[in-house]
Amino acid sequence: xxxxxxxxxxxxxxxxxxxxxxxxxxxxxxxxxxxxxxxxxxxxxxxxxxxxxxxxxxxxxxxxxxxxxxxxxxxxxxxxxxxxxxxxxxxxxxxxxxxxxxxxxxxxxxxxxxxxxxxxxxxxxxxxxxxxxxxxxxxxxxxxxxxxxxxxxxxxxxxxxxxxxxxxxxxxxxxxxxxxxxxxxxxxxxxxxxxxxxxxxxxxxxxxxxxxxxxxxxxxxxxxxxxxxxxxxxxxxxxxxxxxxxxxxxxxxxxxxxxxxxxxxxxxxxxxxxxxxxxxxxxxxxxxxxxxxxxxxxxxxxxxxxxxxxxxxxxxxxxxxxxxxxxxx
Amino acid sequence: xxxxxxxxxxxxxxxxxxxxxxxxxxxxxxxxxxxxxxxxxxxxxxxxxxxxxxxxxxxxxxxxxxxxxxxxxxxxxxxxxxxxxxxxxxxxxxxxxxxxxxxxxxxxxxxxxxxxxxxxxxxxxxxxxxxxxxxxxxxxxxxxxxxxxxxxxxxxxxxxxxxxxxxxxxxxxxxxxxxxxxxxxxxxxxxxxxxxxxxxxxxxxxxxxxxxxxxxxxxxxxxxxxxxxxxxxxxxxxxxxxxxxxxxxxxxxxxxxxxxxxxxxxxxxxxxxxxxxxxxxxxxxxxxxxxxxxxxxxxxxxxxxxxxxxxxxxxxxxxxxxxxxxxxxxxxx
Lengths: 329, 333
What we know:
The complex is a heterodimer.
Chain A: H1 10-38, H2 45-72, H3 85-101, H4 106-131, H5 135-154, H6 164-170, H7 179-196, H8 199-209, H9 211-216, H10 221-247, H11 258-267, H12 279-298, H13 305-328
Helix pairs in contact in A: 1-12, 1-13, 2-7, 2-8, 2-10, 2-11, 2-12, 3-4, 3-5, 3-10, 4-5, 4-10, 6-10, 8-10, 11-12
Chain B: H1 14-20, H2 27-42, H3 49-75, H4 83-99, H5 104-128, H6 133-151, E1 158-159, H7 167-174, E2 176-177, E3 180-181, H8 182-200, H9 202-212, H10 214-219, H11 224-250, E4 252-253, H12 262-273, H13 283-303, H14 307-332
Antiparallel strand pairs in B: 1-4, 2-3
Helix pairs in contact in B: 2-13, 3-8, 3-9, 3-11, 3-12, 3-13, 4-5, 4-6, 4-11, 5-6, 5-11, 7-11, 8-9, 9-11, 12-13, 13-14
């Protein structure tokens, strides 16, 4: 509920945000530089590919979360958030694995998996837009329902799955680089273009940034918010396919990813010029976390530190962001 | 709001009916009665004193205490994602001090102090640095996870050896006052304290004002940052107490076990908001929410649904309760 500044401080505003963005990029660079010196092989093509491959699932989920945050506005309690996305992945992965197990071809299994994600997105959209439940609590209940159904159909076990498509996804693409790494970059590129460079994306930002203004300008606000949840649902099921490929089956405990997804989407804000959620910012923050985990492994630092460092990063990023915003106004 | 002017006419629209009807405001009460009746008929052994005691002790107590803290925080318009962390920290210090043969009261004090520190950290971030509560407590949650993993070598539980425990220790987890389990007595006492705190004190009024409109609260001279920091400290200490009870009951500290209560506490509090005409969290509403969740879990178990279907059933039920009440709010507005 900050008072909206209508004028003034333009010059400094740019400087502050640019400074923060530059600072975070320099921070990113420093971390990579440190690990490059401390861990031989950190900057090898093989290792970078490895990081991209490991980050693919988190990345795709983080993009979905970012889209919802763009359309829902920046307030995390009343604004847009999709807590169901991690369990959506769990349920969709279970659907995919089961359909392959009972002998369905890849096309059918893939179709139903994407439909599962679409359905979950639609349920969120109905709950938020048509019924008017707060996104935080609406997606929380949908998350519980997804978790329940996943348990019912998998009986809380790991389901092995294999198929020609999965073999391709889990293997290497051109130049011996993992297919998942390519997929992460392709999905990111497509979404960057759609969200950041099309009229559709611009309206999405307009809806989240100033709902009343968007309404007055004739944007069908409800439709855009609903679309954001559906896109996020589909991202969840795409993530599921990637996860089945990476782990050669469905896995339990996918819900544990949720907080990391939220964290990376929020952390991505500091990589954008206007301090708003962007797909490119989320990609950078996912890679940042990916390189951090990888660097810890290579330099034999206990992985127990990862969560704490991530937490400190969030706090640091948010503290500096709010500081920059306060100086602006 | 001049909506009450519209009196009942022959051609009453659905929206007008909703506006007049107080039934939807009580969706949670209605849902509660429906579920209760359904389970009484369908679930064998549901309608018995021993089962109710069982529900209150095993399902209700811990979640109720955690939800109290969450209610206070949500009342101020914030959110506390680190309730589980405060529980875990309280439990970790309590069990560690007990297993180091410290005095029983010292261990309780240590546990509560640990939780206090967690809440203090949140308070500094939110009241002092003015970081958004969602992000601040998310950060605390992540840091708490690392701290626990480092302290327990990656998440190894700490078990107490039963023979070495003093009678006082057993009392928290399994003792009774006039036949009522101690943990339940403590929960009831905390509920009364929280009710009085939110409804009858100036601190409670400030918290409500802060949640309703922080700018107006500030202009009215309320010490906004002080209040918004203090609620996180209170929430954390309350959750620390829940953590101590939990670990005293199971005679162990299980790392990262508190997070299981986070989403249920948020859910229960939001179910409770449907009781209030403006959708404000309240202690009584939250307790109804916790009770609803508790009897559903217990009842579905008695009916013979396995754990997996219980989760689906509970999720769908909560979804409908929320849908009804938000739909009602929207039509009334």
